[in-house]
Structures are given as structure tokens and as C-alpha cells.
């Protein structure tokens, strides 16, 4: 075996180095500046430790803080390990489990001792102090490969039962690696890591909260303490993030939903929303808006059953792939006697639908379809149920019962690109009506999937070509391809919206599916007189009404555009002498289609202004004796100082224009 290997750099240059040379040594040979800046290496595209020796010919690129995505991933991973070491230093006997990085930080799950009990938020400053001590010590982070049995024995000896259990279940033949911090503390991890703890900025992290968690996410298992933190490359990034968190807290849809009396959730219906009148006004406006959009785009609205036989879900493939997320129902009359089981062993099973697509195929199959009937666009505001774990539920953003703006386009092969391109245009118009910028991503075939490689090749190319033809496969639209992130039956385009404070939300999607029509035997008669399979395009724009409303609440900080606001105007009196005029003004505004309330209470006007501002009412029309005599109103606009005096008729015309949905404006 040759003692020299060939390393090719990004600029195409190559150099011969001794086998076992590290990327850090290559960085140093290029220059001291690069040696200091290099954090890790990409070896034939794979991210690795900068101190890990090279064993064969390779393509090498060095990762610095300019490669922000990689650098953040490394830093957050290291912060998680430093957190775990700090906790075990401070609280001996605590067991470690897992500690991944997240989109803005990291967390680690611990099994505290029985004597200590769950960790508390008050302990976080102490843990932060110990983390900074470990970082300041600049401990090298060393990768070691262990024999399976030896590692399991080590974990058992140290009392790390969770780590021992996990190591025992990893596939035979898989390389088991640990990382040491200095010469002592270690954790089982695939890596990669930075070269040492000192590469972290001690001022660039903050522990944020403690919560409960379950070992391996199963509530039947041991309960753990999860400590969350946010981690960045420098103090400035952390400060900017904390400002964003503060702003996000102000915009929290759960708090605003309560303040604005939009909805509530409670334990009697885990993960299902109780919509109040104000909230349901927003829902109805969105529903009406979407109906106008889909009607104009040639969709035909349908309604399908909530409960379907399990055999239908078996045939579609969902029973095998998705059953753990489905609510199943016995198809028999339950036992009403005091003795015996409620449901017999002989019960047939049905399920609440977790998605609408199989039912839409059944509608398509009713009656013979010709190639002339295609494309057929079936739309449904479809109520679905998914059995999400209680701990995963989050306000409107993750629920168990939700309604999708769901549609399926059944089309011929030669119609696919045009249909997808048309959908891109429809989505573009709708998102711009709500003031969102967006990025488009193409999620490609996952490892576990239905269908042939040829089928996936065609589907991916069709989606890609449609976006290219629509002029959206550009840097401006954040075009990116995501290997392995498609559904098990189809690749998909994803729309990622950017909200007012820079957060992204994956909302819309369109999927090109050749699998489900085949599994459910959908066909049409082609021009040649033979049966053919249609291609089924699954598509949504809001995604779900619940989550989209949650996003809108946070995007607008509760200050909906006037056309969406539950109450668009309030007429408030200064003195009781203006009550009759206020009532007449409300009647006129209501007749003009403006959602208007009155406030005739015997309260000071400043109190009324403050209260309706908190309720996010776009316009407050203040009237007193003078306004009543002159037929005017004093208009206060939400978020602006001062007021404007204008005739009631002029105010009505202005409010009516503001209250008109964007798609209906001239």
C-alpha cells in the first residue's frame, strides 16, 4: 500500500501527502491564516473532523466560519456535548442520553438522580458558568473507535444504562465511535466535532429552558429532563437571535389568540381547536378567498367521508406506512354491559382519514373517464385527523384535527408540466396577496419508497422542468434540491414562506404521484381506446387552515390587514349625547359590508382607545357631540399616532376599500 495519497483541493490543484495527514496539517501548509480559521473538512462531500487522518485519495475542502451552515451545525453540536459534560460535573450520577443540534441551537436529554429530581430553570445559570469553564479550558475533542462489547461494558460500568441500551441496538458491523473531551469525559457520537472546546465562543450561547421528555420519544419509557439552549458563532449573532426571540414572544399566536378572543385549546379535546366567533371570521374569510381562487383556476369542489374502511388504507399503502399516526375505530356496536371488553376481537377496523387523497381517487373512479376529461382538478376543504403525540402538539402549529386546502389534479403525462407551472403561478399570486416572500425547494426520493426508479426519474424531472419554465428556479426564489426528503410515494415541490421577522415556514406543496393511482386502480380511456393510468398531483397552498392562521397571527403580530380582521372598525363615543349618532354610523357601516362594533360605555376615551388597540381593531371611529352635529368621525388607525377628521360617508368609502379582499380589488 502506498504511503502517499493524492488530495485534490476546490481550485483543482492537487498535492501528494503522507497517508495519515490531517486536514488541519494541510490547512497549516497552505498558510497560518487558514490554519487558524479552518474548523472542519469536507472529504468527498462528507463533513469530518479537521483532526481526523486522511487514509486515501480524496477531494478536500476546508470549512471556516464563512461556511455558516456547516459552522453552526458543528458549534451547536459541540455546545450540546459541553452542556452534557457540565451537567455531569455539577450533578454526579446524572445519566446522559442524546443531544442533537436544532435549527437555532441545541438540547440534551438527561436522566437525573432520584435524589435531585428533574432539573429546574433556576439551575441554568450555574450550568452556563460550568460550560464556560469547560470552553475556557480548551479541551481537545478526540474521536475514538470502540469495540461494541467493550463500549457496552464501559457504559454499564459507568452506570450509563441508556447509552448501553442504545449501543446494543445499533446495527452489527456499524462503527461505534465516541468523542472525548480532554482525557476524561466522553459521549457516544458519530461526529463530527470541532478540534477543541476552545473553538467555541463562550459568549455565543445561552441556555433557555427546561422541559420534560421521554426516552426515545415514547411516553411509556422513562421520563427525562431536557435542557434547551441556543448557540451561535459569536456574541453578535446571539444578541440578534435573542432580539428575534423577544419579538417572536410578542407575536406568539397562542397569547394573541387569547387576547383577541380567536380560539382556545383544552385537554378535553387534545390537539383540536375551539374556534371562537372572532377566530372563525378569519377562517371564513380565508375559505371564501381560497374558493374564489380555486373556482377561477378550474377546480371542482368535493366533500368526502371522515371514516373509511381499513382495507382502503391497506390498499393505498397508508396502513403499513402511516398507521401509527391514524385514529382507528372498531366497526361494531360496542358492548354496553358492565362485564366483558367494550370491543370484541372480531371487530373490523376503520380509520379517521389522515389525508384526503384516497377518497379523491374513489371519486375519480366513479364513471368512465376519457382523456378528454383530463385534467380533472378535485378540491376539498378536507378535515383530517392525525394521532400526534401529546408532547408534540403546539397551539395551531401542530394539531390532531386540521382542515387542508387540499386538491388533487388527475392528468395525462403530457399535461403535467403545464399543470405544475399553473399551480406555481396560483401559489405565487396567493402568497403575494398575504405579503409573503418565499423560496421553492424540490424534495427528492427518500430511501424507503414505492415505485420504480424510472417512475421517480420522470416525476422529479417534471417538477424541476415546471419550475424552470415558470422562471422560479433561481437564487431569487431560493431554489434548492433536497435529496431524500420526498414522500414515500412522490417527490414534491415545497414553498417556504418568510415572515415579518425572518422566520421560514414550509406551507405549500405539490407532489407528482404515479404510485397511488396504480395502487387504487385509477384509469382513463386514452385516445388509442386503451386504459391508461392518470398522474395524480397532490397540492395545497395554505397547507392547513389552522397552521396558516397561526402563521398569519404571528406574521402580522395580530394586526391583520383590514379585510381579514375579525372586527374592522369600532365606533366609540366620547359622551352619551353621541350614542344615537354612533348607532346610526354602525348601521351604515354594517350595511356597507364592514364588520363594525360600537362602544357606548361610560368610560374615558383613552381607556377605550387602549382596549381596542390591544384587541388589534384596525380602525377606531371616535364620535362626540361635535361629530354628531357635523356628520363626521375622528378616525384613529391602529399603530399610528393622531387622528383624522372626515365626513362619515368619506370614512365609509375608505374603510370599504380597505375591507375589500385583495383578489376583489379593481
Radius of gyration: 30 Å
How would you sum up the global shape? globular
Poorly predicted regions are: none
Our estimate of the beta-strand percent is: 15-25%
Most strands sheet: 8 strands, mixed
- Please give the number of β-strands: 32
Report the helical percentage.
25-40%
- Tally of DSSP helical segments: 20
Question: How would you classify the helix and strand content by structural class?
Answer: alpha+beta
Average pLDDT, rounded to a whole number, is 93
Q: Please identify the oligomeric state.
A: single chain
Can you offer a commentary on this structure?
By secondary structure, the chain is of the alpha+beta class. It is built from 20 helices and 32 strands. Strands 15-19-20-27-24-23-21-22 form an 8-stranded mixed sheet, with helices on both faces. α5 packs antiparallel against α6 and α8 packs across α16 (545-555). It is globular and about 95 Å long. The mean pLDDT is 93.
